[in-house]
Write a structure and sequence with these properties.
By secondary structure, this protein is mainly beta. A hairpin with a 2-residue loop joins strand 85 and strand 86.
Length: 1125
């Protein structure tokens, strides 16, 4: 019996990845794929409909040069990258080549700092993972009304994004979707959204109000963590869960409007800290009052001033509130770095903790109150901590043509600018005198594009221009002697900087994170480049260090990943810890003769630093970790001229007669590598393209003999790779973590190192031209790209029936591991050995035709698992039947539908197979992302494990009365599924059957007795888990009568049935299963047909009534409360 069950299981597993419904095309022809750029001028219309009279299709209008890819279903396109587009305001077209643009792909615009706005048309249905992540200059987004999902980290780190409108079409907001969007001020989650992912709005420090729609059932872990300006939140009426930390560190969240059934209490850490900081939780209208930009809240006759939403930087707090005194609430202006002066009136009775914390520019406090406020003190909420002066007179701040000045102890300070100009020329002087730019003076002025600093400025203060993300140019005059810490940090648009000779000190992290900065010239007056001064300037290619510099600080150029060479002048004596660490593309360094010490790890992780020109007295040796790892990675250390050659942007180095390609210094994203170097072959050096995250396509020509370790590791956007026949080896981690869709591997490859294709989870196809050569490749752990691709193409055709050719004597370890396009394999007579795991995870390999002398048997792990998944091993013809593109298999009189191999997206399954019933086998339609509709006939008796797993476009399903069971994960991750009809014969629904079906809104049944009898294996197996409405005979279930014929109400029968208000249960019922009414938050009444004693005798499973309303049980002889029941 056990053997029979095992064989049946193997039959069903056939369905995992066959055919076009999987990640590839099972029709025997290569899936059409395009990776092309949008050129609106004369682009070919691939539908064959010529554009008439020269008119351009209006739907195809959009930004030129974007990269597109044809979807797997070939019905539309996805935007996959910026391509050659140079627009800052990007419009995604509705159509491309006559077909709709339906998706924005993963990482499509990742870290594209030039992007300021994007318009997403109504044709787009999904925004992929990290699609706009770290687009720091992105200010506005228009999301079309067809988008249903916003992916993981889609807009994370878009620090300039001020607002976003989420349309009613969106059903899910992914984890970290808008995390660290510091400028977003308010968000409305529409009713269409059912779940808010983990960290979705974490760190949105300007977010003041959130309204959560009535469709949301769950707010996940830390969804609004650290939203320090959030003052009010409305919890929708269907929310049943607020996960841990969801509102933690929302210090100003004084009001919670609770429309849900959750018990939210002030001061409690329960329900994700939502009430922890609150003054009040209630279910009425908001009590927050905005009085001229000042936010007040009154509770128990105490007035609180807890926020300010205006734009003034010189504040005079209200004299009173409704004629009464008030308190300043905790953290009222916390981290308001633009406030320069505040007047505290006499009506203020107290100032809460940290009310003025981190108000770094608050130099003046005018105190009219009775509070004892002193400069430099942390008392009274830090109000005087940063002050130059506390007094009770008139403000000493002077507004001169929009510029704010303050004079203290004879020193003039420029504090900021109150005008609207974006191109500034600072005053030549202040009252004829020099002045300093004060700390934070222009911090986070994101609209500022250029600034000219006058000749009377003597210093630039701490963080003075930090976060000016649109600032493209700055002129620093010779009058400036000091540039403060973080002065220009995170000015993402600055491209070049010249530091004049007058400057003697560059502060810590002064230009850190300026990731568009390409060149820096440091004047001869600078003596010290402080710690982290240029940390993370990952576009920096040219650095000129002045002859006055004596010290390069710790981490000064760490993570400058585009820097290819550096000359340390003779004046430098010390190079600090980590000074050039993680400069992955650094190939050559010249050490000046004055250098006496190179600190720990100064050049560590500079993997391509093959050449050190050492003019010092230090004993730098190749391969040594001494002298800060300067020689760690070196091929050669000498005192002559550099031997690195730049040939058309490619960096070559020759050592001991071997030519190495070290990297590329151009901006091209689609590379065709040179076919030779000086007429000779060459190797791609280890780490050559490490973390080149703009690279999308690489063609490796026949002049390349090997691909080094980590060569393309971290190239997140790399989608297509073609490897020529001259390549013999692919190093470890070579393509680790890439976004590869397809890879072509030449016939010369004999070895692939460990983890070469690890985490290339987007792979859909591996293309080869010679099976015999493939059989002989030595694969190490996670080296085989088939592990993720699942589909092998031979000469452009998908391999479903694998034939090992005559002449092959051995099949290497892991050779075909993970390939799920095979349904049959023929082992030729010449094969003498099959390596371990050669066919491991080939779940669909049901038939082995064995021509060899090997003793291959069904179910054994011997011979590389080749027979492990097989139904049969024989020498004859294949027994799999293709009937109108449906694959069937019959075993022991049971018919199984294994897969559909056509391209239709609207399927009507066969009425029968040879006039008989059949089962839908496990994984039969798994990953059929293009499948939108399917009709299941009455001849189907069961739906197997994972049968429709991740059919992400499937909208509705009707399960007929003939079906008795729905298997484990049968509909898991059917993200678009909105309605399900379940027949009366279903008796069991497996674990996770409807997990991640978070768009599901309607479940239809016709027989309540049959429904009560279903065995739901866990909560995730229940179609009501995400708050769908249960319909009985097309009417929503609100008042339910259980018929007398029912004796048992099954586990989870009405789990999360939020519409249910009352239920009548007959005295025939003897048991109520666990979780039977869990989550029925509207339930107020249970009418029982027996006595209170009989009710008590009913066997009730655990949590049968958890998270329900406060119902009353009415029995024939009395009533019981929920607690008594």
């Amino acid at each position: 019996m056990k053997k029979l069950l095992a064989i049946l299981l193997v039959i069903c597993i056939l369905a995992v990845a066959l055919a076009s419904c999987s990640k590839g095309d099972n029709s025997g022809t290569e899936t059409s794929r395009e990776n092309t750029s949008n050129n609106q001028n004369g682009s070919e219309n691939q539908n064959g409909n010529d554009k008439q009279d020269g008119k351009e299709d209006q739907d195809e209008k959009g930004s030129d040069g974007l990269n597109f890819e044809l979807n797997e279903d070939e019905l539309g396109y996805s935007v996959i990258g910026i391509g050659s587009c140079t627009d800052t305001d990007i419009a995604i077209p509705k159509k491309y080549n006559g077909k709709p643009v339906t998706n924005i792909g993963d990482y499509a615009f990742y870290d594209y700092d030039s992007l300021t706005s994007v318009t997403i048309p109504d044709s787009v249905k999904s925004i992929g993972m990290e699609a706009f992540c770290d687009c720091n200059c992105l200010i506005s987004v228009t999301i079309g009304n067809s988008v249903t999902s916003i992916g993981y980290s889609a807009f994370k780190g878009c620090t300039s994004l001020t607002g976003v409108t989420i349309p009613n079409s969106v059903t899910s907001i992914g984890n970290s979707a808008f995390a660290y969007c510091y400028s977003i001020t308010n968000v409305t989650i529409p009713d269409s959204v059912t779940s808010i992912g983990k960290y979705a709005f974490e760190g949105c420090s300007s977010l003041t109000s959130v309204t959560i729609g009535n469709g949301v059932t769950s707010i996940e872990y830390e969804a609004f963590f650290g939203c320090t300006s959030l003052t009010s939140v409305t919890i929708g009426n269907r929310v049943t869960n607020i996960d841990f930390g969801a509102f933690e560190r929302c210090y100003k969240l004084v009001e919670v409007i609770n429309k849900s059934k959750l018990n939210i209490t002030v001061g409690s850490e329960d329900n994700g800290h939502v009430g922890y900081y609150a003054i009040e939780a209630h279910n009425g209208e908001s009590k927050i009052v905005n009085r001229d930009g000042y936010l007040f809240y009154t509770y128990n006759r105490v007035n609180y001033l807890f926020g300010y939403v205006g734009t003034d930087i010189i504040l005079t707090l209200p004299e009173n509130y409704n004629g009464q005194s008030y308190e300043i609430y905790n953290r009222m202006l916390y981290d308001c770095t633009n406030i320069t002066s505040v007047t505290i009136p006499n009506s203020v009775t107290s100032i809460g903790d940290y009310a003025f914390g981190c108000c770094y520019k608050l130099v003046e406090v005018i105190n009219k109150s009775e509070l004892n406020i002193t400069a430099g003190s942390k008392d009274n909420g830090y109000v005087g901590y940063y002050a130059k002066e506390v007094h009770n007179g008139e403000s000493k701040l002077v507004n001169k043509d929009g510029y704010l000045f303050y004079t203290y102890n004879g020193v003039n300070y420029l504090f900021g600018y109150t005008g609207t100009d974006t191109e500034l020329v600072l005053p030549e002087n202040y009252n004829g005198e020099n002045y300093e730019i004060y700390k934070y003076a222009f911090c986070n002025c994101r609209s500022l594009t250029s600034i000219t600093i006058g000749n009377s400025v003597t210093s630039i203060g701490y963080s003075a221009f930090k976060g000016c993300t649109s600032l493209t140019g700055v002129t620093i005059p010779n009058s400036v002697t000091s540039i403060g810490n973080s002065a220009f940090a995170y000015c993402y648009s600055i491209t070049n900087v010249t530091i004049p000779d007058s400057v003697t000190n560059i502060g810590e992290y002064a230009f850190s994170g300026c990731d568009s900065l390409t060149s820096v010239t440091i004047g001869n007056g600078v003596t010290s480049i402080c710690e982290g001064a240029f940390y993370g300037c990952d576009s920096l290619t040219s650095v000129t260090i002045g002859n006055g510099v004596t010290s390069i600080g710790n981490s000064a150029f760490e993570h400058c990943t585009s820097l290819t060479n550096i000359t340390i002048p003779d004046s430098v004596k010390r190079i600090g810890v980590d000074a050039f660490r993680y400069c992955y593309r650094l190939t050559s360094v010249t050490i000046g003769n004055g250098v006496t010490s190179i600190d720990y790890d100064a050049f560590h992780d500079c993997y391509t630093l093959v050449e050190v020109i050492d003019k010092s007295e230090l004993n730098i040796t190749a391969g040594s970790i001494g002298n800060g790892c300067a020689g760690c990675y070196a091929k050669e250390i000498h005192k002559g001229e550099s031997k690195i050659v730049n040939k058309d942007g490619y960096l070559f180095y020759t050592y001991n007669g071997v030519n190495y390609l070290l990297g590329h210094v151009g901006k091209d994203t689609n590379l065709v590598l040179p076919d030779s170097y000086n007429g000779e072959n060459y190797e791609i050096y280890k780490y050559a393209f490490y973390y080149c995250d703009s690279l999308t396509s690489v063609t490796i020509d026949n002049g390349v003999t090997s691909i080094g370790d980590y060569a393309f590791d971290g190239c997140w956007h790399l989608i297509n790779v073609t490897i020529g026949n001259s390549v013999t080896s692919i190093g470890k981690h070579a393509f680790y973590g890439n976004s590869l869709k397809n890879i072509t591997i030449g016939n010369g490859v004999t070895s692939i190192g460990e983890y070469a294709f690890r985490d290339c989870s987007s792979l859909t196809g591996v293309y080869i031209t010679d099976i015999a050569k493939w059989c002989n490749i030595s694969f190490e752990s996670y080296a085989n790209p088939l592990y993720y691709a699942n589909n092998l193409y031979l000469n452009g055709e998908l391999v479903t029936n694998l034939v090992i050719p005559e002449g092959v004597t051995s099949i290497s370890e892991n050779a075909f591991s993970g390939c799920r396009s095979f349904i049959s394999v023929t082992i030729s007579s010449s094969v003498k050995s099959i390596g371990r795991y050669a066919f491991h995870d080939c779940y669909t390999l049901v038939e082995v035709i064995n021509k060899s002398e090997l003793n291959i048997t069904v179910g054994t792990t011997y011979y590389g698992y080749v027979g492990y998944y097989a139904i049969e091993v024989h020498e004859g013809e294949s027994k799999i039947v293709n009937k109108d593109d449906y694959l069937f298999y019959t075993y022991n009189g049971v018919n199984y539908l294994l897969r559909h191999v056509g391209k239709d997206t609207n399927l009507v399954l066969p009425d029968s197979y040879n006039g008989e019933n059949y089962e839908i086998c496990q994984c039969a339609f798994q990953y059929c992302s293009s499948l939108t509709n399917i009709t299941i006939p009455d001849s189907v008796t069961s739906i197997g494990y994972g049968a429709f797993y991740e059919c992400s476009s499937l909208k509705s399903i009707t399960i007929p009365d003939s079906v008795t069971s729905i298997g484990y994960m049968a509909f898991k991750s059917c993200y678009s599924l909105t309605s399900v009809t379940i027949g009366n014969s279903v008796t069991s629904i497996g674990d996770y059957a409807f997990y991640d079906c978070d768009s599901l809104t309607s479940v239809y049944i016709t027989d309540i007795e049959a429904w009560c009898a279903i065995d739901f294996e866990d909560g995730y197996s229940h179609p009501l888990y995400y708050g769908a409405t249960l319909y009985l005979n097309n009417k929503p279930v609100t008042e339910l009568i259980i018929p007398d014929s029912v004796t048992s109400i099954g586990s989870g029968a009405f789990y999360n049935c939020g519409s249910l208000t009352s239920i009548s249960i007959p005295d025939s019922v003897t048991s109520i299963g666990e979780y039977a009414f869990c989550g029925c938050y509207s339930l107020t009444s249970i009418n029982y047909g027996g006595t209170t004693s009989q009710w008590s005798d009913i066997s009730k499973g655990s949590s049968w009534n958890s998270s329900t309303g406060e119902y009353t049980v009415t029995c024939t002889n009395g009533t019981l409360t929920k607690a008594q029941s």
